[in-house]
Amino acid sequence: MNILILCAQGGVAGSTYSISYLAKGLAEKGHQVFLGLKENTFLDSLVENSAVHRIYMPFKGKLDKKTRTIITKIIDKKNIQVINAQSSNDRYVGPIINLFRKNKILVVQTRRQHPKQMLGANKFFQNIFNNFFSDYLVTVSHELKKIFISRGIKAEKIKVIHNGTPTEQYIQNKRLSQQLKQNLGYTDDDVVIGCVARYKNQPQLVKALKYLPKEWKVLYVGLDEKSYRERFPDEPDILDVPQQVKCTGIIENKAEVIQYYTLMNVNILPSTMDGFGLALVESMAMGTPVVATNYAGIKDVVQHEENGLLYENENYEDLARQIEKAVLNTQLREKMIQIGYEAAFKKFSIQNTINNYESFFEEIIEARKSKKDLKIME
Asked: What residues does the Glycosyltransferase subfamily 4-like N-terminal domain cover (predicted)?
């Protein structure tokens, strides 16, 4: 297959890793994979020295003419069979190009996050765009699919393909873990409540801390204190809690990020925007129990009291109860660790994701070809 993947973003984020895994995985299986991206982004560095063909594009807005011109040339020159748009601005490019082409290109959008609430004209035009100008939507969870259907997207246009993670990367580096622990001033006796994410509604965790022991430690990986405070100008004391709190800031080295999980007694994702929650799978793979919001796609990943714990959104006492349970209930904790391993290494492996995308793309390309052949015969 000849596949063009588009990504206008590409900063340090779980979705960026996911896109790089997908592009490289499909290329390694022998497909011609072209990745339209911005130059010198984090995504650019992740696919460097791989079989993926990088095509630099400006992506200056949803209707950027220069980006459309580049894509049109690639479609014709490389015989592109399917376009897979992975972020906001690039979702508009393929359908707009198809408006002016006789030979239409299959356009597949991948949606990873909970969509913003839209009303009136915005919702009307978005639904027309998704239902009539895009061929398919891939959502990363069944719960996200339900949300898009409730917003007016046709169910038959949506395919669920879970995110995946490369299982070979989950090896504990005891020397690095010990170094990180020493740098943070932690001891083996400390209870550490962790959160590995950029901004994902961490104030819910902050508000739950008053119900938890003061001697426990709090660690935010991927968030720095300055930017965290700046998000809440009306709450200057947002981090002034009884527990010791430390922030690492953004960490680009995935091998290092993974080792932080080993310092934590529990990893918490208090998110209302995730369509999946890759950090939860990473945590499971490293043997750290998870607590997350009972919300949207997270429910595809975490089964309550099986491979993790769920709390009700904005119920801070419930969040605190679930955290205590994950830390103190030894029997439940061991059960969640074991089942979490199985989920991470079997159900949510990147190989499953790559295989599912490959099968789906082959299926829709063949269906389009059969439709054209039938039309010619008529």
From this structure: 14-168
Q: Same structural domain for residues 184 and 112?
A: no
Q: Give the tens place of pLDDT for each residue, 35-92.
A: 999 999 999 999 999 999 999 999 988 788 899 999 999 999 999 999 999 987 787 8
Residue showing tokens 């400006």: 58
Residue 162 is encoded by which pair of tokens? 């879970």
Print the domain residue range for 134: 2-164+350-377
Assign residue 110 the CATH number of its domain.
3.40.50.2000
Strand partners, 6: 36, 85
Using alpha carbons only, give the angle 271, 273, 278 rounded to the nearest 5 degrees. Answer: 70
Q: Taking the CA atoms of 90, 92, 94 and 97 in sequence, report the sign of the dihedral they define.
A: negative
Which residues on adjacent β-strands are paired with residue 106?
A: 82
Looking at residue 156, its amino acid is: E
Predicted TM-score (pTM) of this structure: 0.89
Q: Looking at the 3D structure of the chain, how many domains does it have?
A: 2
First to last CA, the chain: 27
Q: Quick check: 18 and 163 in contact, CB under 8 A? A: yes
Beta strands in 147-202 (DSSP E): 158-160, 192-196
Task: Provide the β-strand partners of residue 4.
Answer: 34, 83
CA distance 221 to 247: 6
Residues 27 and 45 in one domain: yes
Beta strands 136-139 and 158-160 are parallel
